Amino acid sequence: MSHTINIMLAGPRGKMGAEALKLIERTDHFHLVACLDRKYDGMKVQDIEGLPALDAPIYTNPNHAFDQVNADVLIDLTNPEAGYEHTRLALLHQVRPVVGTSGFTDDQLNTIKQLSTDYETGVVIAPNFAMGAVLMMRFSQMAAKYFSDVEIIEKHHDQKLDAPSGTAVKTAQLIQESRPSQSQGHPNETETIDGARGADYDGFKIHSVRLPGYIAEQEVTFGQAGQTLKITHSSTDRYSFMSGVHFAVEQVMQQDDYVYGLENLME
């Protein structure tokens, strides 16, 4: 029988947070001990309309939550500003964060990494929790060894705040590791409208689409004389991310250091 994992969840009323509550509710050895929310301080999760019947307190002050609640893992599915502060506080209290928030700066990631080392506490930051998306990134890294010309098109719902997505940035970083740095396209190419060719990353382009109707989709297109290769992943339901959240919570309990990207736990 698996050991019970006590979980604190940040962002229970968000779309991803609501899915995470369902995951905790249906997983026998996951136990919700508290939630962090901007509202409803002192109430119970079960008292909030639309949330599962879970007997866990809600805190609006994360300092109070970490001081008063015995948690093993923090699941954070909020936004970069709140997510960074929650992650920092969790590590200071030796609570292992599993973070699905993208948009952290390099300085913030470096601070999180250093805190993880200082407190010997594992942390998993995943730009994407969908297993298929993680494989898409890995396959793109493999393809970049043989196709050096590439562009990334990522499409998300119009409420997403950061662009490009964390998944696109992580994909670009993996491609960069496999591909020699080079500029693509015609050397005299010009944009008649600013930004038409997208963002530049190590000589190749990343394009961000934001429209209602999408959840998360990414296409990585490689081109070579006479052929193209497309690697595509689509999440059509937020439930697709929960297998990765479940996996990350299990894995972070065995980690004492910083992990960025779910693929690093899938070797």
From TrEMBL:
<feature type="active site" description="Proton donor/acceptor">
    <location>
        <position position="156"/>
    </location>
</feature>
<dbReference type="InterPro" id="IPR000846">
    <property type="entry name" value="DapB_N"/>
</dbReference>
<feature type="binding site">
    <location>
        <begin position="11"/>
        <end position="16"/>
    </location>
    <ligand>
        <name>NAD(+)</name>
    </ligand>
</feature>
<feature type="binding site">
    <location>
        <begin position="100"/>
        <end position="102"/>
    </location>
    <ligand>
        <name>NAD(+)</name>
    </ligand>
</feature>
<keyword id="KW-0457">Lysine biosynthesis</keyword>
<dbReference type="InterPro" id="IPR036291">
    <property type="entry name" value="NAD(P)-bd_dom_sf"/>
</dbReference>
<keyword id="KW-0963">Cytoplasm</keyword>
<dbReference type="Pfam" id="PF01113">
    <property type="entry name" value="DapB_N"/>
</dbReference>
<keyword id="KW-0220">Diaminopimelate biosynthesis</keyword>
<feature type="binding site">
    <location>
        <begin position="166"/>
        <end position="167"/>
    </location>
    <ligand>
        <name>(S)-2,3,4,5-tetrahydrodipicolinate</name>
    </ligand>
</feature>
<feature type="region of interest" description="Disordered">
    <location>
        <begin position="175"/>
        <end position="199"/>
    </location>
</feature>
<feature type="domain" description="Dihydrodipicolinate reductase C-terminal">
    <location>
        <begin position="132"/>
        <end position="266"/>
    </location>
</feature>
<dbReference type="InterPro" id="IPR023940">
    <property type="entry name" value="DHDPR_bac"/>
</dbReference>
<comment type="similarity">
    <text>Belongs to the DapB family.</text>
</comment>
<dbReference type="Pfam" id="PF05173">
    <property type="entry name" value="DapB_C"/>
</dbReference>
<protein>
    <recommendedName>
        <fullName>4-hydroxy-tetrahydrodipicolinate reductase</fullName>
        <ecNumber>1.17.1.8</ecNumber>
    </recommendedName>
</protein>
<feature type="active site" description="Proton donor">
    <location>
        <position position="160"/>
    </location>
</feature>
<feature type="domain" description="Dihydrodipicolinate reductase N-terminal">
    <location>
        <begin position="5"/>
        <end position="129"/>
    </location>
</feature>
<comment type="pathway">
    <text>Amino-acid biosynthesis; L-lysine biosynthesis via DAP pathway; (S)-tetrahydrodipicolinate from L-aspartate: step 4/4.</text>
</comment>
<keyword id="KW-0520">NAD</keyword>
<keyword id="KW-0028">Amino-acid biosynthesis</keyword>
<keyword id="KW-0560">Oxidoreductase</keyword>
<dbReference type="InterPro" id="IPR022664">
    <property type="entry name" value="DapB_N_CS"/>
</dbReference>
<keyword id="KW-0521">NADP</keyword>
<comment type="subunit">
    <text>Homotetramer.</text>
</comment>
<dbReference type="GO" id="GO:0008839">
    <property type="term" value="F:4-hydroxy-tetrahydrodipicolinate reductase"/>
</dbReference>
<feature type="binding site">
    <location>
        <position position="157"/>
    </location>
    <ligand>
        <name>(S)-2,3,4,5-tetrahydrodipicolinate</name>
    </ligand>
</feature>
<dbReference type="InterPro" id="IPR022663">
    <property type="entry name" value="DapB_C"/>
</dbReference>
<feature type="binding site">
    <location>
        <position position="39"/>
    </location>
    <ligand>
        <name>NADP(+)</name>
    </ligand>
</feature>
<feature type="binding site">
    <location>
        <begin position="126"/>
        <end position="129"/>
    </location>
    <ligand>
        <name>NAD(+)</name>
    </ligand>
</feature>
<feature type="compositionally biased region" description="Polar residues">
    <location>
        <begin position="175"/>
        <end position="187"/>
    </location>
</feature>
<comment type="function">
    <text>Catalyzes the conversion of 4-hydroxy-tetrahydrodipicolinate (HTPA) to tetrahydrodipicolinate.</text>
</comment>
